Amino acid sequence: MTTSFYPVILATVIPPMVFAIAWILSNRPIPSMNKLSPYECGFDPKNNARLPFSLRFFLLAVLFLVFDIEIVLLMPIPLSLFLNPMSTLLETTISIIILMLGLIHEWNEGSLDWSS
Amino acid sequence: MPGMKFRQDMPPPGGYGPVEWAQKIPRRGLSGYAIFGVAIGISSTAWILYHFERNYKRRYELDMNDARIALEPLLEAERHRAFLKQLRKNRDEENMLMKDVPGWETGTLYGEPCYHNQAKRFPDVKPEEYFIHSRWADMYDRIWERRKH
Amino acid sequence: MMHLLICILINYLLVMVAMAFFTLLERKVLGYIQIRKGPNKVSLMGLPQPFADVIKLFTKEVSFPSSSNLYPFIFSPMMGLALALLFWSLYPYSSPLFFPMYGALLFLCISSLNVYATLIAGWASNSKYALLGAIRSIAQTISYEVSMALILLSALIILLSFNLILMTSSQWSSISLLLPPLFMIWFITTLAETNRTPFDLSEGESELVSGFNVEFSAGSFALIFMAEYTNILTMSLFTSVFFFGMIPLGIFTDIPLVLKTMFFAFLFIWVRGTLPRMRYDKLMNLAWKSFLPLSLSMMILSTSLIIII
């Protein structure tokens, strides 16, 4: 419909084609129980692998979300610098100081320390 | 393969050179402060050059802006002309399509005007209606093209 | 419209060929760094080695572990390669296919989508090693993405545009000379973003065997591998676009860009051959406690310098 989607269309078409070629060419031996079980250095995998849940990684993801949203708010700075430089500088400084205070608070609280 | 002759990997004739095992201490270059100074010198020169480039770019941008302002009335007139031409095409098409229907008046739905009313004299036409007489695929292409501007 | 499709297809295919030879370059350079010869047996000086690798990988058995979720398991490598290829529709050479106004934004979008491919791959294979590797690599990519976006933003403040074509066609001064520390942080961040050697915690061989791609074999593994190496080339391309201005050489303007890209791709290998792996807590501290404050202050610095100058 429109030319700007062509790269997306092609990029979604090529990898399945590559995979299809690999699938057609692939060797197909008789499947065995040991080959089909998930890899676990010499053990038989007994329980579900999705059980462990790390709160630390979860907190990290939440931190990332907070910072990323504030980065989205900073995105239009390069475009607004030509129009009104002084107010852009003011806004940038204020928002970055807020970000910095948030970072210092997190640091102080210890949520950035990986090994405690 | 039958055509190929097997060739064993062997050391080069005369053997390999002696193994270098002695510690090599690299030559000392500039001191840390000197490197720091050089870096600061290079980047301040770069900032001065950047100043000139930016002024050039700003003048260029100003020039382009003036050109756009000068062109704008012409483009606006062309846009209006294209709009009116499309409306006329729509009217002619409707005349031709509906010539067999008795009592059909173009621009109205059985005598009731739908493009021209008292309260808001000429309401904006929806893009789907504006391109109604073109092919389906072309219609969506044209709507897309219009939305880009 | 057909010619446009063919142009994009050629673009993507050549990227894949470049990626193939980049793997050969890596093996060769690593070989010479470790005082041995790399692959030199396949026909002419080992040049078609990547094609031999591809044929080997494609003719192996594609195994789907019985406990894995089949559709995400098949889907995730394809998604990785699709995203890696999509970067190259932005390739800003002097006769580009598209003129995107906000190419830098699209670059950021696609690079943050790359996390999902790893996430799906690690989760779908339903193996402990894969899950741990995926979680580690996601945490690392996410943490470095914050500072990457900020560094990119301070570079764009100096460039005053999001337009990649404009950067490669009219930006004479280079940011690596204007703000050298910014460029250094950026390069380290790209190393972490592509999960390369001082930061390749996602595939720490001693603890995690191979990270999130333990369960993948043959074709799926080839796709993951291709995505990874294409990402390295992409990152070096964007490093040279954002941080090194163009050199006006008439019709040869593209050649310095390509040479710079090759240099950075080589640098990735050099770093792999030289530096040992980092500890995980140090990695996280580097991201959150030094790069983030530094890139935040760099942003204020570049904004104010732009206004002063």
From TrEMBL, chain A:
<keyword id="KW-1133">Transmembrane helix</keyword>
<keyword id="KW-0830">Ubiquinone</keyword>
<comment type="similarity">
    <text>Belongs to the complex I subunit 3 family.</text>
</comment>
<dbReference type="Pfam" id="PF00507">
    <property type="entry name" value="Oxidored_q4"/>
</dbReference>
<keyword id="KW-0249">Electron transport</keyword>
<comment type="function">
    <text>Core subunit of the mitochondrial membrane respiratory chain NADH dehydrogenase (Complex I) which catalyzes electron transfer from NADH through the respiratory chain, using ubiquinone as an electron acceptor. Essential for the catalytic activity of complex I.</text>
</comment>
<dbReference type="InterPro" id="IPR000440">
    <property type="entry name" value="NADH_UbQ/plastoQ_OxRdtase_su3"/>
</dbReference>
<feature type="transmembrane region" description="Helical">
    <location>
        <begin position="57"/>
        <end position="77"/>
    </location>
</feature>
<dbReference type="InterPro" id="IPR038430">
    <property type="entry name" value="NDAH_ubi_oxred_su3_sf"/>
</dbReference>
<keyword id="KW-1278">Translocase</keyword>
<keyword id="KW-0520">NAD</keyword>
<feature type="transmembrane region" description="Helical">
    <location>
        <begin position="6"/>
        <end position="25"/>
    </location>
</feature>
<dbReference type="GO" id="GO:0030964">
    <property type="term" value="C:NADH dehydrogenase complex"/>
</dbReference>
<keyword id="KW-0472">Membrane</keyword>
<dbReference type="GO" id="GO:0031966">
    <property type="term" value="C:mitochondrial membrane"/>
</dbReference>
From TrEMBL, chain B:
<dbReference type="InterPro" id="IPR009346">
    <property type="entry name" value="GRIM-19"/>
</dbReference>
<keyword id="KW-0999">Mitochondrion inner membrane</keyword>
<dbReference type="GO" id="GO:0045271">
    <property type="term" value="C:respiratory chain complex I"/>
</dbReference>
<feature type="transmembrane region" description="Helical">
    <location>
        <begin position="30"/>
        <end position="50"/>
    </location>
</feature>
<comment type="similarity">
    <text>Belongs to the complex I NDUFA13 subunit family.</text>
</comment>
<dbReference type="Pfam" id="PF06212">
    <property type="entry name" value="GRIM-19"/>
</dbReference>
<dbReference type="GO" id="GO:0005743">
    <property type="term" value="C:mitochondrial inner membrane"/>
</dbReference>
<comment type="function">
    <text>Accessory subunit of the mitochondrial membrane respiratory chain NADH dehydrogenase (Complex I), that is believed not to be involved in catalysis. Complex I functions in the transfer of electrons from NADH to the respiratory chain. The immediate electron acceptor for the enzyme is believed to be ubiquinone. Involved in the interferon/all-trans-retinoic acid (IFN/RA) induced cell death. This apoptotic activity is inhibited by interaction with viral IRF1. Prevents the transactivation of STAT3 target genes.</text>
</comment>
<comment type="function">
    <text>Complex I functions in the transfer of electrons from NADH to the respiratory chain. Accessory subunit of the mitochondrial membrane respiratory chain NADH dehydrogenase (Complex I), that is believed not to be involved in catalysis.</text>
</comment>
<keyword id="KW-0472">Membrane</keyword>
<keyword id="KW-0679">Respiratory chain</keyword>
<keyword id="KW-0813">Transport</keyword>
<keyword id="KW-1133">Transmembrane helix</keyword>
<keyword id="KW-0812">Transmembrane</keyword>
<keyword id="KW-0249">Electron transport</keyword>
UniProtKB/TrEMBL annotation, chain C:
<comment type="similarity">
    <text>Belongs to the complex I subunit 1 family.</text>
</comment>
<feature type="transmembrane region" description="Helical">
    <location>
        <begin position="70"/>
        <end position="91"/>
    </location>
</feature>
<feature type="transmembrane region" description="Helical">
    <location>
        <begin position="232"/>
        <end position="251"/>
    </location>
</feature>
<feature type="transmembrane region" description="Helical">
    <location>
        <begin position="6"/>
        <end position="25"/>
    </location>
</feature>
<feature type="transmembrane region" description="Helical">
    <location>
        <begin position="257"/>
        <end position="275"/>
    </location>
</feature>
<keyword id="KW-1133">Transmembrane helix</keyword>
<dbReference type="Pfam" id="PF00146">
    <property type="entry name" value="NADHdh"/>
</dbReference>
<dbReference type="GO" id="GO:0003954">
    <property type="term" value="F:NADH dehydrogenase activity"/>
</dbReference>
<dbReference type="InterPro" id="IPR001694">
    <property type="entry name" value="NADH_UbQ_OxRdtase_su1/FPO"/>
</dbReference>
<feature type="transmembrane region" description="Helical">
    <location>
        <begin position="287"/>
        <end position="308"/>
    </location>
</feature>
<keyword id="KW-0520">NAD</keyword>
<dbReference type="GO" id="GO:0005743">
    <property type="term" value="C:mitochondrial inner membrane"/>
</dbReference>
<dbReference type="GO" id="GO:0009060">
    <property type="term" value="P:aerobic respiration"/>
</dbReference>
<keyword id="KW-0830">Ubiquinone</keyword>
<dbReference type="InterPro" id="IPR018086">
    <property type="entry name" value="NADH_UbQ_OxRdtase_su1_CS"/>
</dbReference>
